[in-house]
Write the structure tokens for this entry.
Amino acid sequence: MGILDGYTVLDCSIAMAGPFAAQRLGDLGADVIKVEPITGEWQRHAPAGGITGNRINVSFLSLNRNKRSLAVDLKSEAGQAVIRKLVEKADVFIQNYRAGVAGRLGVDYDTLSAINPGLVYVSMTGYGEDGPHAQRPGQDLLLQAMSGAMMSTGRQDEPPQAAGQYLVDAVTAYTAFEGALAALLHRERTGEGQKVEVNMLDAITTLQMQELSVFTVGGKPQERSAEPHAHVYIRAPYGTFATTDGYIALAMPNFPGLARALDAPALADLDETRGGWDDRDATFAAVREAIARFSTRDCLARLEAEGIWAGPVYGYADLVADPQIAHNGTFIEYDHPTEGRVKTPGFPIRFSRSPAELRRGAPLTGEHTDEVLRAAGFSDADIAEMESAGAIARGPA
């Protein structure tokens, strides 16, 4: 049994951050009921990479395993009554609506906690539930830009570069996952439910704990270099460098060892302060020229012999084929009834007694509506009536 077996989660979130957080709870055994519109959640219609799938696109597939789908119209009174009924026995409620929307739909914390005082209510927003930016769109790229993170890499005279991942969405998901678990632990000890507020701006800001402290406490400016140094607060050379047949990443080497490894005696004359900080661009350029003479394999072997931190720069094909990834069981594979064989990242935390597991793939819209409503006490006649009124959708749609 999973750690969260016996817990029920109502996932009313959309896009990436909320569904990803709910999926993590499902991986640990919770019964996650994905509450989505009768036409399907937004992510079903917005495929990343244009990969639409057969019935379920890859974006939705990747963020909604271990869930059951309840398709319901929350703008209808009947739909809101369904949620109020489910909340009576739920443990966690997750939503990431824009500020004010939850109240208009009748699923705000005050309303639902009055029904179930033990409910852990996770509210996820872009910037916070109130304040000057509360109504701004909480989109990953916009938050990366606002967080200051983009201004820590790349060349000083070129536009800031975003991360190649949905970084803010992912860290917000993990923050919400962590908050839900902590609140459940509090409830186990006290019997009290509570509201857990998570916003994307705070999540990506606090992720930069060390960098921002160097700025706020140490007073060191955030200054990019002319060379593509990988971090404004780490001494040169630090970044990616081209070889004759690819790239390597190099991190904080000692200069004498680097000089020996690269047959570049002049590097041995550099000291950490002058070469690493004061002449960062010149140092980066000198190391770039030295590394460009070697193949990736040869260069990495030379650096390893000197105990210097370096490694290959992978693409996704390299990553998936790496033997450590296979050893760790990082990816899971399963057969989906409509999408065929699926290979996707699994759950990254290992538990010796209660491991995460895959119980079901991502559901079709409304696939479990009948099942969920019957378990909540609705009769077949009730369900048929709500379907006729357009308040719910039943089965694959």
